[in-house]
UniProtKB/TrEMBL annotation:
KW Transmembrane helix (keyword) present: yes
Record Pfam families: SET (PF00856)
Xref: CDD domains: SET_SMYD
InterPro entries: SET_dom, SET_dom_sf, SET_domain_protein
Protein name, UniProt field: SET domain-containing protein
SMART domains: SET
Species of the source: Obba rivulosa
PROSITE patterns: SET (PS50280)
Residues covered by the SET domain: 75-225
Transmembrane intervals: 38-61
Length: 385
């Protein structure tokens, strides 16, 4: 499924967009994940395949615990049929920015690297599920089922099982998992997605948060790819991997407005590259901060709010390195706010920011560079800390 993700994974390698921000050790957990592609693994040279099926095992979770911990009534959405999209997720009430929308344990996960045929592996795995669990898997949508296979044959069963997996699986730490309810989230680009998922290792679950306020009746959308790419590139990727022509609110802008949006998104990507040059001493702390403020301002124009927690946390890192406690604290507060929206106020990242606000000099980067005064965040949307 979607690379659901958003934000910071994007930042890291991400999201397929590869903005390379700072990667301080304190921020290694990744928010919204990238959609995993089993075929990527399958195509790895044998020599690189480090995990065998037997050695690694498959971690199968009980779906009963999923249903036990999350009753249908407790979520602010319903799953419905949507014209041209298959199923999708609609808010059943107004949802606040930062509100948790779903916490879901996986139906199953598989290791990221395998040695056996992926279709065979998945069939083996599914044979260990209850009928209900199996039915929930086969109820998921799929694309890219190879032509010419005959239903009822082993080859067809393997291909179908794999197609479902590739359409719906997302990364779950070191593994890749199926989350049947989250898998109903459709995709939106740039300013169009309003929900972000994150894998939480300590909970063994995926959590989905509202990146933006969502109105009752609105569709909840996540993102399957790095949407900081131009429209044509986004559409090509989505068509190839997910079998649809994206007609989200951003992709369906008239040409002139779409070009403006593309320019903003490209500018954000380039600015992230520039920001990351601070790591190598190629830009000063003040310059890095100015770049971050520019990213923020362009994101505001575009309506692209994802990754802001990570961005602000990175600037706090820069400020700490240059021994500017005031700027560090201001950026950490901002990071706390946006991490809370995107990843949850109870996320590890939010907790880290609280510690930094309380004791700026205890930051691991503190005073690791020459002293420099920064300005703090200056272009903030109304209501920011
Ligand atoms: C992870 S599933 C999402 C849920 C799916 N719609 C369903 O019926 O279960 C991914 C598939 O949903 C469809 N989809 C997702 N986002 C879409 C969009 N913005 N427009 C049209 N189809 C979309 C595509 O068929 C895609 O392969």
């Amino acid at each position: 499924m979607p690379p659901f993700a958003s934000a910071s994974e994007i930042v890291r390698k991400r999201k397929h967009g590869g903005t390379a921000l700072l990667t301080p050790p304190s921020q290694t957990s990744k928010p919204a994940g990238k959609k995993y592609k089993l075929w990527d693994v399958v195509l790895l040279p044998k020599a690189l395949i480090v995990v065998t099926l037997l050695a690694c095992g498959i971690y199968l979770y009980s779906i009963s615990s999923i249903h036990h911990s999350y009753s249908t009534n407790s979520v602010p959405f319903r799953i419905v049929e949507l014209l041209g999209k298959g199923k999708g997720v609609i808010a059943t009430r107004d949802i606040r920015q930062g509100e948790i929308i779903l916490r879901e344990k996986p139906l199953f996960v598989v290791p990221s690297s395998i040695t056996s045929s992926p279709g065979a592996l998945l069939l083996d795995l599914l044979s260990g599920l209850t009928d209900k669990q199996e039915a929930s898997y086969y109820d998921l949508s799929y694309v890219n089922l190879p032509q010419g296979l005959h239903p009822g044959t082993r080859a067809y069963d393997e291909a179908l099982t794999l197609a479902i997996f590739q359409t719906n699986a997302v990364s779950a730490g070191q593994n890749v998992g199926i989350f049947p309810r989250m898998a109903r989230l459709n995709h939106g680009c740039s300013s169009a997605f309003n929900a972000v998922y994150t894998w939480r290792e300590r909970e063994g679950a995926i959590v989905v948060h509202a990146l933006k306020p969502i109105k009752e009746g609105e569709e909840l959308l996540t993102t399957y790819t790095d949407t900081k790419r131009p429209r044509d590139a986004r559409r090509q990727f989505l068509q190839q991997h997910y079998g649809f022509h994206c007609g989200c609110a951003v992709c369906s802008l008239p040409t002139d407005l779409s070009e403006v949006s593309d320019k903003r998104l490209s500018a954000i990507s380039e600015l992230y590259q520039r920001f990351s040059a601070w790591q190598y001493g190629q830009v000063s702390g003040r310059e890095a901060e100015a770049v971050a403020n520019e990213i923020w301002a362009i994101g505001e124009e575009e309506g692209y709010w994802s990754e802001r927690g990570r961005l602000a946390a990175d600037v706090a890192w820069v400020a700490a390195a240059h021994s500017d406690a005031a700027a560090e604290t201001a950026w950490a507060r901002l990071a706390l706010r946006w991490y809370s929206y995107e990843l949850g106020a109870d996320s590890e990242q939010a907790e880290e920011m609280r510690k930094i606000v309380a004791r700026p000099e205890a930051h691991p980067a503190w005073s690791s560079r020459h002293s420099e005064s920064l300005e703090g965040p200056w272009q903030r949307p109304a209501g920011d800390v």
